[in-house]
Amino acid sequence: MNDVSLSKIENMIYMVRGQKVMLDSDLADLYEVETSQLNRQVRRNILRFPEDFMFQLTSNEFREIQKIKNAVEQYGGQRKNPHVFTENGVAMLSSVLNSDKAILINIAIIRIFTKLRSFLLLEKGLNERMSSLESGTNKIFFFFFERLDAIELTVDSKLPSTKKKIGLKKS
Q1: Who contacts 1 (Cβ-Cβ below 8 Å, separation ≥6)?
Q2: Residue 23: which residues within 8 A CB-CB, separation 6 or more?
Q3: SS3 15
């Protein structure tokens, strides 16, 4: 697998129902088989694909993916909404599609899912650190401005009032 293929695979991963998934047609394209052949193998081994491994998109979900892909014409002939596979479902496909190509593609896909998961964990850690820094900074500024207010009150109470009024004199 070269980097071009890896980036191609990364662009085939979508977020649906809070999960990273891949379309059956994209997987079939990667495995160089017909989508119908891939789905036929899945149907023959349906016990290997529970709902958290594979599910069928709703019409709205499919339209959203089409917008993202910007390729509505590619799906013109489909009568049913496509199936999508989670990371576990993709791993299970390697046992259903028993070819060297399928195994190599699955290894690349699983590596990308793992990389994406590590990015999400890194992002979560950074968000937590930023929140902690923001909280600490807010406490420091609060203390600093309280001290400035106290100093200002002390200075104002010790100085004689030498402020001149600005405005028109009453005649």
Answers
A1: 104, 105, 107, 108
A2: 12, 14, 65, 82, 83, 84
A3: strand
41 burial (CB, 10 Å; 0-12 / 13-18 / 19+) is middle
- Fill in the DSSP letter of residue 16: E
Whole-Å CA distances, 159 to 16, 151, 152, 162, 163: 67, 12, 11, 8, 10
SS (H, E, C) 109-135: HHHHHHHHHHHHHHHHHHHHHHHHHHH
Could you write out the DSSP letters of every residue in 62-112? HHHHHHHHT-GGGGTT-SSPPEEE-HHHHHHHHHHS-SHHHHHHHHHHHHH
Identify how many contiguous H helices and E strands the chain contains and give both numbers.
Answer: 6, 4
Query: What separation in angstroms does the CA of 150 have from each of 139, 140, 153?
Result: 17, 15, 5
CATH class of the region 3-124: alpha beta
Model confidence pLDDT, tens digit, residues 5-30: 667 778 888 989 988 899 999 888 88
- Predicted model pTM: 0.59
- Residue 57: the pLDDT is 93
pLDDT tens digits, residue range 99-152? 777 777 777 787 887 887 777 666 777 777 787 778 778 788 777 778 888 887
